[in-house]
Each structure stands twice: as C-alpha cells, then as structure tokens.
Amino acid sequence: MTLKVACIAALAATMSLAGSTAFAAASDYVFDPVNAEMKKGDDVTVAIRLTNRITGKPVTDVVIIRSRVDMAPDGMADMESQITPLPSNEPGVYAFKTDLPMAGHYQLSVAAKVQGEAETVIGKVAIKANK
Fold first, then answer.
1. Which terminus of the chain is more exposed, N or C, with fewer CB under 10 A?
2. Does residue 10 lie in a domain region?
C-alpha cells in the first residue's frame, strides 16, 4: 500500500467516524409538566421535567437562567406571578414556588443551560389552575 493510498484510507475512515457523531441541539430537549393541573392558590409548587428527546432520559445539572409564570394562554400575559426555584430530589425535575391567584391557564417559560450544550434550551409549559 502506497503512502498516498494509506492517507486516503485514513482520511475516509476519519470522515466516516465524523459523520456518525451526532451533536445535540437545543431542540433535542423538551420541558413537560410533572402535573399539568393543580389547585389555584398561594405558594403553589409547579414542577417541570426536562427530557432529552433522543434518549428519553431526564436531563440533570441544568442551570435555569430565566423563568416566568403568567396567564398568556388565557390572553392575560400581564398577569405575572413571582417565581422562586425550589430544590428537587428527582433527576431532571425542576420545581418552582409561585402564586396562581385565579383559576385558568398559565404558562411557565424557562430558559436553561444544559451542560455541554452551546445553545440555550427554551421551553414553555402549559399548566391549569382549578378552583
């Protein structure tokens, strides 16, 4: 085998390996509510789960950089409540304390940094507060 042929073979092998490597994207993650319905009130705990769509596994060690809860689904985005992160014992679950002062539909918007992911993962989770 000549040096030129060996180099071409090595390059082809490297390219085939590079082509099989899958890089994650922010769209490979999804936030879902742990409980989509809860009772309205003060100091309500809202928990969401972050899952990798490709593997189906929970995503841990995420840094939440932005969170907001409001009544945007009911056309009242100005109806925003304070939101405070809470610790969670379940892998991939991120909990928040907030007020859901009236019955209706709420939206929890989250922006998170996933370890090893260059893009910010953004999610909007719908929840319903009942009387």
1. N
2. no
Confirm whether pTM is higher than 0.90: no
What secondary structure does DSSP assign to 2-68, as a single string? Answer: -HHHHHHHHHHHHHHHHHHPPPP-GGGEEEEES-SEEE-EEEEEEEEEEEETTT--B--S-EEEEEE
In the three-class reduction of DSSP (H, G, I as helix; E, B as strand; rest coil), residue 73 is classed as: helix
Buried b (16+ CB within 10 A) or exposed e, 68-106: bbbbbeeeeeeeebebeeeebeeebebbbebebeeebeb
Number of domains observed in the structure of the chain:
1
Q: What is the residue range of 83's domain?
A: 24-130
Which CATH number characterizes residue 45's domain?
A: 2.60.40.10
Any domain includes 1: no
Q: List the chain pLDDT tens, one digit each, 131 residues.
A: 555 544 454 444 444 444 333 456 899 999 999 999 999 999 999 999 999 999 999 999 999 999 999 999 999 999 999 999 999 889 999 999 999 999 999 999 999 999 999 999 999 999 999 99
